[in-house]
Amino acid sequence: MDGKSKDISLDIIEKLKAIIPGAFAEEKINIEQLKQILGDSVNNDAERYQLSWAGKNDAYKILQTSTTSTLNPKPSESINWEHASNIFIEGENLEVLKVLQKSYYGKIKVICIDPPYNTGSDSFIYPDKFSESKEEYFIRIGDKDDEGYLMKEGLFRPNRKENGQFHSNWLSMMLPRLFLARNLLKDDGLIFVHIDDNEITNLRLLMNEVFGEENYIQEIVWQRHAGGGNDSKYFAIDHEYILCYAKNISSIDKLRMPLSTNDIHQYKQKDRYFDTLGPYKTKSFLRMRPDDPRPGLQYSITCPDGSKIFNEWKWEEISFLKALEEDKVIIRKDDKDKWIVEYKLYLNSADGKKKEKVPRSLFQNEARNSQGKQTLTKVMGKANVFNNPKPIELLKTLINLGSSHDTSDIILDFFAGSGSTGQAVLELNNETNGNRKFILVQMPEKTQDSSEAFKAGYRYISEITIKRLSNVLTQINKQRKSQFEFKKTMDQGFRFFSLANSNFKIWRGRHIASIEDLKTQVEIFKKSHPDNINELQILWELMIKSGICLDIDINETNVDGKSVYFIEKPNVAFCFTDITDSIVKELIAFKPSQFICLDSAFNNEDCAKTNIILKLQENDIEFKSI
Questions:
Q1: Which DSSP state fits 388?
Q2: Which of 88, 157, 575, 577 is deepest in the core (most CB within 10 A)?
Q3: pTM of the prediction?
Q4: Of the candidates 384, 379, 385, the residue with the CA atom closest to the CA atom of residue 472
Q5: What distance, in Å, lies between the first and last C-alpha atoms of the chain?
Q6: Distance (Å, rounded) from C-alpha 23 to C-alpha 16?
Q7: Model confidence over 172-192: pLDDT tens digits?
Q8: How far is CA 119 from the centre of its chain?
Q9: CA angle, 137 as apex, 135 and 138 as ends, to 5°?
Q10: What 8-state DSSP symbol labels residue 259?
Q11: What domains does the chain contain, in order, with CATH numbers?
Q12: 528-532 CB contacts, 8 Å cutoff, 24+ apart
């Protein structure tokens, strides 16, 4: 374990090597050989179609840089930590996405983000070099923090339209985050990205580059408000966009949405199939596609009075006659005394499942921005603590499109804002008895001194997110207890983590200029971590860097007054104090596949360490020390 996040470049190289081993020589890609293997598929034209901007190469370098950062657990600031499966992370999202690569690679079902729209007044420019020294930081922006590492202050800076690289800055911010997000998606996962007119064109091209043009699904237009806009200079803009891409479109069969309450209310009529198929509504049997005539669907239907109607119908004649015999087609007169043919559309399918509907690319009635504000005001008990929160009903629609209520699908939002996505997941689960889980990431961005949020006591936007989630959970848990008094229900909650520098000492070889410097570094590294770091922080860092998910259950056992931690999936044990014979016996009894401890626990007694290693190996327990 090198203490770093997943190497993105190495991951791509290994996948490429598995597919085209002949393109490698001496562990490096042979470009000429690769061109020969791919033949005509290689575009050698220097003037090829592509998206380019100032700083693009640097954006890819930022993406390829690993991080040693970790996530520190905050149980006391969480809700129902022990049983929570939802995750909230406070921290800069690029670093967090890198930290999450090992634990959540290919595990996220839906990503729903609302990034800065780049309107010219947004404060969004993220400094993407967290490993720079105090001196480098000072040179770059003319300021510095106490530790020499930028964590909270100055993370957001305005990107003004007067800036010559106005669009380039935004693209450089988005590229590495989208690339890392794609890694986290399951093969049949979807990403939804909210955006407006300022960057929709560039975002579409960027998404094509990161996700592949073939994985584009839809550019959704949603009506964010109606009315007003009389002071607009040109057009009153009522809409925004949501870009939808798949990780791998070949893994997605079709997209369907559950029927809304209004949809279900249209199924009012009953017949002899009610017990199995539920109520029904009727629809015209006419096939109204003059642009695409089908002779096989053109035939005459005999009416009850013996007259005939010739037209082009929805089904072939043999299917119609069968449905007519089964009383699933109606031939009746309309209010103009004309014969019409309708078929019955039942609420349930033959297997008892409720009907679903095809999503439309134009979202007109899902929600309005004003509803998002009203919802947040109701939850927080105060108005205007966050600007333009997305409406919950809109987010529920997107989450429903990409995930299922009866699975433990994970929904990720790494521009969490006030936490609208989290509330949408919690409410959906409550409404459908679902098992979806969320991971939210929000920067500790400072609130403006003049803002309502600041006046209400919120110094960082992440504090608003936490308060919103807490209030929603309190309301839902109270509601569940009142509704299900006859059976025991477990309170829902979330685990709170914060982005932090590694809890382990980082070897800084570039600062060694002499033998004395080397001796100092060696002395410092006699112990792998500072004295003020607690066991829980060490445990979670090692688990995260071992690829263990953040909602895992930890079994803590006390042996001789010392804590031993067991994780069932994967089967791993941890201990961070002196390893006694009693602890070894406990390990052998539990028999984890791997045991991880600190090398400092052996106090430089190599003989004792070797004996413990041999005992564990005899019981097929792999030993690792940090």
A1: S
A2: 88
A3: 0.84
A4: 379
A5: 8
A6: 9
A7: 899 999 999 999 999 999 999
A8: 24
A9: 65
A10: P
A11: 1-45 (no CATH), 60-256+359-498 (3.40.50.150), 261-357 (no CATH), 511-625 (no CATH)
A12: 528/504, 528/598, 528/599, 528/600, 528/626, 529/503, 529/504, 529/505, 529/598, 530/503, 530/505
Distance CA 262, CA 65 (A): 50
Distance CA 203, CA 263 (A): 34
Nearest-CA neighbor of 269 among 335, 332, 358, 359?
A: 332
Contact 505, 599 (CB under 8 A): no
CB 240 within 8 A of CB 195: yes
The Cα–Cα gap between 379 and 386 comes to 12
List, in order, residues 6 or more apart from 356 with CB less than 8 Å away. 256, 257, 258, 259
440 backbone dihedrals φ, ψ, rounded to 5°:
-115, 140
* Amino acid present at 360: R
Instruction: Note the pLDDT of residue 142.
Output: 43
Q: Which of 51, 61, 96, 66 is nearest to 2 (CA)?
A: 66
pLDDT given for residue 309 in this prediction: 95
For residue 385, give both structure tokens: 């603590």
d(Cα 239, Cα 220) in Å, to the nearest integer?
10
Q: Report whether 461 contacts 443 (CB < 8 A).
A: yes
Cis amide bond preceding 391, omega within 30:
no
Q: Residue with structure tokens 């299900």?
A: 484
**How do beta strands 28-29 and 24-25 pair?**
antiparallel
**One-letter amino acid of 595:** F
- Sites in the chain below the pLDDT cut of 70: 1-2, 45-47, 120-164, 483-490, 505-514, 517-532
Scan for tokens 């309450």, then name that residue.
261
Contact 541, 504 (CB under 8 A): yes
DSSP, collapsed to helix, strand or coil, labels residue 55 as: coil
**C-alpha span between 252 and 371 (Å, rounded):** 32
The two structure tokens encoding residue 541 = 């860092």
Cα–Cα nearest to 400, from 441, 357, 349 = 357
- Helix then strand count (H, E) for the chain reads 19, 24
Of 211, 212, 181, the closest CA to residue 115 belongs to 181
The contacts of residue 415 (CB under 8 Å, 6+ apart) are 93, 113, 114, 115, 116, 441, 442
- Here the tokens at position 238 are 């009522």
For the chain, the maximum distance between any two Cα atoms, rounded to a whole number of angstroms, is 108
CB-based burial, 545-562: b 16+ in 10 Å, e otherwise: bbebbbbeeeeeeebeeb
**Burial letters for 416-449: b for 16+ Cβ neighbours within 10 Å, e otherwise?**
bbbbbbbbbbbbbbbeeebebbbbbbbbbebbee
Q: Is 459 left (phi over 0), alpha (psi -120 to 50) or beta?
A: alpha
Q: Which of 397, 390, 484 lies closest to 115, judged by CA?
A: 390
Q: Strand pairing partners for 594?
A: 572, 622
